[in-house]
Amino acid sequence: MRKKIFSGVQPTGNLHLGNYLGAIKNFVELSNQKDNECVFCVVDLHAITIKQDPKQLKRNIRETAATFIASGIDPNSSIIFNQSMVSAHSECAWILSCVSKIGWLNRMTQFKEKAGKDKEKASIGLYSYPVLMAADILLYDATHVPVGNDQKQHLELCRDIAQKFNNDFDALDFLKVPEPLIQKQFSRIMSLKDGLKKMSKSDPSDLSRINLTDEKDVILNKIKKAKTDPMPMPTDVMNLSARPEAENLLGIYSSLRSQGLEESINEFKGKQFSEFKERLSETLIEKIEPISREIKKLLNDEKYLDQILFNGSEKANKIASKKIKEIKQLVGF
Ligand code: AMP
Ligand code: TRP
């Protein structure tokens, strides 16, 4: 079966190793498989659910597109565009918000985390964020959605929304119920400062993450300072769960080298962390530096990036405007 792939990344700056290993690396592999139809969206409407500086947002939209291309997605064979250029996303989100239940959204853990203690002060957009995400996916009849582990709950909601819409409007199989594509291993990269916390764009400490634009010296320094524990390197997978930092660093190493955790453990078992950290830094520099260099090169050519996004949005609009027309008909407009 021909796969239709859709995924999105928020242009909120600081794209990091977690985004790369959890999502973008997978986008690249899927986009290289000949029969797949791929759409990768810079989800700028999602970004403004939290206050953004307009100038910085514009820069971040281009940087996210540049990251897709620098990582290896070919804009000629995949669609790369930004969400706000295709109005069907907002229209569809509204319609879907009228079939979604408040009780479903109340269960979303990401909202609880992002809203923090004072939920009354969070934007309505932040609350209904997963409905917009469902609109993104369902407009393109996506069959598969590659994401990091943290988006699993949002995808389950998307499936519920699709089924509810089909049911309410007596339209069997009209909205396609998508399958999540979450990597079995290494789908959740943790902070370099705390193995129990997700690596995140919004962590105030830059030492907690490897940014995709970090240069060699910065990578070396961050890995040197990464938290470990006082024991030597682990000897088998069994005793890893009690050592979250060791598990995370070994996971990063394995994922970058596309090898199993066991293989990495065997390579370093019983050795000192310092030796492992040296090899990890080398691997990171080898894989990340070319991407970082290419992102910077692309960012110097804003016209080129804007053209990619414009062309992508025209192609996306063709697909999405057809679907939203059908949705409107079903609803009775
Ligand atoms: P975001 O930056 O929140 O738009 O996330 C873009 C993609 O990166 C999504 O598929 C996330 O699931 C994934 N992602 C973000 N942070 C991590 C992380 N620490 N580990 C693995 N995947 C992540
Ligand atoms: N919510 C996703 C994230 O923060 C980004 C996103 C928006 C997305 N729309 C999507 C991912 C559609 C997959 C499909 O990571």
Summarize this structure as a short list of keywords or feature phrases.
333 residues; Tyrosyl-Transfer RNA Synthetase; 2 domains; 3-stranded parallel β-sheet; 5 strands; 54% helix; globular; binds adenosine monophosphate; binds tryptophan
Structural class per helix/strand content? mainly alpha
Strand count, sense and closure of the main sheet?
3 strands, parallel
- CATH-defined superfamily of the largest domain: HUPs
Number of strands: 5
How is this structure best described in words?
The chain has 333 residues and is mainly α. The chain has two domains: 3-188 and 302-331, Rossmann fold, CATH 3.40.50.620; 206-297, Tyrosyl-Transfer RNA Synthetase. It has 13 helices and five strands. It has helices spanning 17-31, 44-47, 54-71, 88-97, 102-106, 109-115, 124-139, 152-168, 216-225, 244-256, 261-268, 273-299, 302-331; strands at residues 4-9, 37-42, 79-82, 144-146, 179-181. The strands form two sheets. A three-stranded parallel beta sheet has the order 1-2-3. Helix 4 (88-97) packs across helix 7 and helix 10 crosses helix 12. It starts with a strand and ends with a helix. The mean pLDDT is 96. The site of tryptophan (TRP) has 13 residues, from strand 1 and helix 7.
